[in-house]
Recover the amino acids of this structure.
């Protein structure tokens, strides 16, 4: 086949009548022609064929997307998300020998780990969503009644526990002995002061600094006490400063921090106590307070609130809204939503 091609090709036929040098020159000229043809082909692909192909694909994709958008119709009926949970029921996940619990905390970024504080059994931990629990306070705590648990968002291995349940009942368990701290996710614990507060209702930790901690101290239940109010530590519980105090019969039952602006906190104060013939909850010392400078100064909030206040819970609902739940004496509840200005 190659021989027939050369016989019919005048260019190569003439090569057989030339000298070797002339033949080499002819071959070089032929290679140059082929190379130029390759360059021309590549330029054609780059400047014309590839852009045309890209434009064709893009036009086709746009046309398909347009057709899909035109054919899709928006949902005309709103979906009731609550319907998905109609079949879900509550069940006890233990631990069954822990007793009543008024304190619980999850761990930021870990959906499997939770801590629970009981009123007579110390602190329990689960790392498998409640399938199993283990006591992590035995051998470290000297009292068993837990009032508050807080886990640091920025350092999940750091957590604080406030002792002494905060729910004022006809039957109360033993008072607490201050604050305990762990820096290894509950494996070991150290005392962190505030032994005389007896009943701690809440602990909040700065979202970016685990050494800045606020404690809501209710104080002694059966008598007057100066160890009440809001305490703050900036060295991880080594030292504490009382930043809010009302009187020796009124203690702090709630603290809520604005985690977008940790300088802003709300504190609920309740006048409370326990006498042989009655439970005291609410009085002249009760009130709601706000600080915008991390506890240096506090302002009492009274506009729009009832004249008689009892135990209150306050929580941040959104960026600008706070909700307070108020109770007074006979258990009546009032839900109040407040608009927080300037954080």
């Amino acid at each position: 086949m190659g021989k027939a091609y050369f016989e019919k090709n005048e260019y190569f036929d003439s090569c057989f009548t030339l000298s070797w040098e002339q033949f080499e020159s002819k071959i070089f000229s032929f290679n140059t022609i082929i190379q130029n043809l390759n360059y021309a082909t590549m330029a054609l692909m780059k400047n014309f064929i590839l852009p045309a192909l890209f434009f064709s694909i893009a036009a086709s994709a746009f046309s398909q997307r347009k057709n899909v958008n035109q054919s899709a119709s928006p949902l005309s009926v709103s979906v009731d998300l609550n319907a998905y949970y109609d079949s879900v029921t509550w069940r006890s996940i233990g631990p069954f020998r822990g007793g009543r619990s008024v304190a619980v905390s999850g761990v930021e970024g870990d959906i499997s780990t939770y801590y629970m504080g009981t009123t007579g059994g110390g602190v329990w931990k689960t790392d498998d969503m409640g399938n199993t629990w283990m006591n992590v306070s035995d051998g470290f705590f000297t009292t068993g009644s837990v009032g508050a648990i807080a886990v640091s968002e920025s350092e999940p291995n750091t957590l604080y526990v406030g002792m002494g349940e905060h729910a004022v009942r006809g039957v109360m368990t033993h008072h607490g002995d201050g604050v305990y701290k762990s820096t290894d996710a509950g494996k070991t614990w150290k005392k962190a002061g505030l032994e005389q507060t007896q009943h701690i209702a809440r602990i909040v930790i700065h979202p970016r600094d685990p050494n800045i901690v606020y404690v809501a101290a209710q104080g002694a239940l059966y008598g007057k006490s100066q160890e009440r109010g809001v305490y703050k530590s900036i060295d991880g519980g080594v030292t504490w400063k009382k930043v809010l105090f009302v009187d020796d019969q009124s203690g702090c039952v709630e603290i809520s921090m604005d985690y977008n602006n940790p300088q802003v906190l709300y504190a609920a104060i309740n006048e409370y106590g326990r006498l042989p013939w009655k439970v005291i909850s609410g009085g002249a010392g009760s009130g709601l307070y706000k600080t915008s400078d991390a506890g240096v100064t506090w302002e009492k909030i009274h506009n729009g609130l009832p004249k008689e206040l009892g135990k209150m819970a306050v929580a941040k609902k959104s960026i600008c809204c706070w909700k307070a739940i108020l109770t007074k004496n006979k258990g009546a509840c009032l839900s109040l939503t407040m608009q927080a200005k300037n954080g």
Summary: The chain is about 20% helix and 30% strand. Residues 140 and 208 are 27 Å apart (CA to CA). The chain has two domains: 2-67, 98-339. The longest strand covers residues 265-275.
